[in-house]
Design a protein that fits this description.
6-stranded parallel sheet, 14 helices, 7-stranded parallel sheet, alpha/beta, globular
Length: about 350
C-alpha cells in the first residue's frame, strides 16, 4: 500500500536558505530512496517549484496565491483536505488547522516566545498563536537540538514523548578552484536578525583590523532586523564603511568562494534553535568564533572559539588572531571532523521519514 505524504513546500520558493535548504535536502533524499515507490509525495505550493526532482517521484500541487498565513489557512487547507494524504508534513513551524489527519511539524526554535521584543507585534502574535496550536495538535513535533527540546517543553508545555530531536545535516560547500590561500577576511552568513548582534561584530572587526588596511568583513544575508538596524551606518560610525561588504544573497558558487578565502567565520548569535552556518564554515576549514550559549556548546563542541555576549575587546582579539596567523585556529579545526560527523542529511532524512510513517500508523 502506498503511503501518501503531503508537504507544505512553499519554503522551496525564492532563495534557498534556512528552512528552504532543510526541506530541499530532505526531499532529494526521500525521492531518491530505493523504496521510493512505497510513497507518494504531494508538494503544495502557491507557485511552480524550482526544485528539480526525478520524474514521477513527487506531485506538485500549485494552489491559491500568496505565501503567508492566509494562503496556509485557506488555499493550502482546502487542497490538503480534498486530497486526504495519510500524513502532512509542516517543515516551518505552522500548519493549517483542522486538517483531520496526522500532522508532523518541525519547530526549529521559539525565539518569538523567548524574546518577543525581536518581533513586530502582529508577527509576534501570529507566530505564537499558530505555532502553539500547531504543536498542540501535531502527532509529533520535530526540532533541531536538545536546547530547543527543553524550550518546547518549558515554554510551550509539550510533553517530552511528543518531541523528537533530529539535527540537520551539514552541506559542505564545494571546493573553490579560484581561491589560492586565505584572505584577511571575516565572514558572516545567515539572515540578518537582531539576536545575531551584527553591530557588535562590526565594532569588534573595527578594533581587530585597525592595523591591517587589507582586512575586510563580509556579511551575507537578507535583512530581517526589527527594530531595523542600519549596518552600513554602524560601519561608517566605526570608520570601516569601505571595508564592510553587505550582500543580501550570494549563489552557492559565490558562497563556496567566500568560505574558501575567509580567515575566520563569526556568528555572535545569542539565541538559536541550532545555528547551521558555523558548521558549514567548519566543513570548509574556516575557524569559527561564536557567542558562548548553551546551544552553541551543544552544537559546535570543542571546534569553536567562544566569546562572551557584549565583549567587544575579547571578540576583536579572537578575530585578530585568525586574521594575523593562518594557523591560529588549527587546534579548534582539528576537532571539527568529530563534530561534523554528528550531522548527516541522510540520517536526518531517514529519521524524519520514520517520524512521518509512525504518525501515519
Amino acid at each position: 500500500m502506498t503511503l501518501r505524504i503531503g508537504v507544505d513546500a512553499r519554503e522551496l520558493l525564492g532563495d534557498t536558505t534556512g528552512v528552504g535548504r532543510y526541506l530541499g535536502e530532505l526531499m532529494r533524499r526521500w525521492v531518491g530512496r530505493p523504496d521510493h515507490a512505497r510513497r507518494e509525495f504531494l508538494l503544495y505550493s502557491p507557485e511552480a517549484l524550482p526544485l528539480a526532482l526525478p520524474s514521477g517521484r513527487a506531485t506538485v500541487r500549485v494552489v491559491g496565491r500568496g505565501r503567508g498565513t492566509w494562503w496556509e489557512q485557506t488555499a493550502l487547507r482546502r487542497a490538503v483536505r480534498l486530497d486526504r494524504p495519510d500524513v502532512f508534513f509542516a517543515p516551518a513551524y505552522t500548519a493549517p488547522l483542522g486538517l483531520g489527519m496526522p500532522v508532523v511539524a518541525t519547530v526549529h526554535d521559539i525565539s518569538f516566545e523567548a524574546h518577543p521584543e525581536w518581533f513586530r507585534p502582529r508577527e509576534r502574535w501570529r507566530r505564537r498563536w499558530l505555532t502553539r496550536r500547531t504543536a498542540a495538535a501535531a502527532a509529533a513535533v520535530l526540532t533541531d537540538s536538545e536546547f530547543s527540546r527543553r524550550e518546547l517543553e518549558h515554554r510551550l508545555g509539550l510533553r517530552p514523548e511528543r518531541i523528537r530531536v533530529i539535527p540537520p545535516g551539514v552541506s559542505t560547500p564545494p571546493a573553490s578552484a579560484a581561491a589560492d590561500g586565505r584572505d584577511p577576511m571575516v565572514l558572516f552568513t545567515g539572515s540578518l536578525l537582531n539576536r545575531r548582534r551584527l553591530p557588535d561584530l562590526i565594532a569588534a572587526f573595527a578594533v581587530a583590523a585597525a592595523d591591517d588596511a587589507r582586512a575586510r568583513l563580509v556579511i551575507v544575508g537578507a535583512d530581517r532586523t526589527w527594530p531595523r538596524q542600519d549596518l552600513a551606518a554602524v560601519a561608517a560610525a566605526h570608520g570601516v564603511a569601505a571595508r564592510v561588504d553587505l550582500r543580501s544573497y550570494v549563489t552557492d558558487d559565490e558562497l563556496a568562494g567566500l568560505y574558501a578565502r575567509a580567515s575566520v567565520f563569526a556568528f555572535l548569535s545569542e539565541y538559536e534553535g541550532f545555528g547551521l552556518t558555523p558548521l558549514e564554515a567548519l566543513g570548509a576549514g574556516v575557524p569559527v568564533v561564536v557567542l558562548d550559549t548553551p546551544v552553541a556548546r551543544e552544537v559546535y563542541g570543542d571546534a569553536a572559539e567562544y566569546v562572551r555576549r557584549g565583549d567587544i575587546a575579547g571578540t576583536a582579539q579572537a578575530l585578530r588572531r585568525c586574521l594575523r596567523d593562518p594557523s591560529a585556529g588549527a587546534a579548534r579545526l582539528a576537532e571539527a571532523p568529530a563534530v561534523l560527523r554528528r550531522y548527516s542529511w541522510d540520517r536526518a532524512a531517514d529519521e524524519t521519514l520514520a517520524a512521518l510513517e509512525g504518525a501515519a500508523r
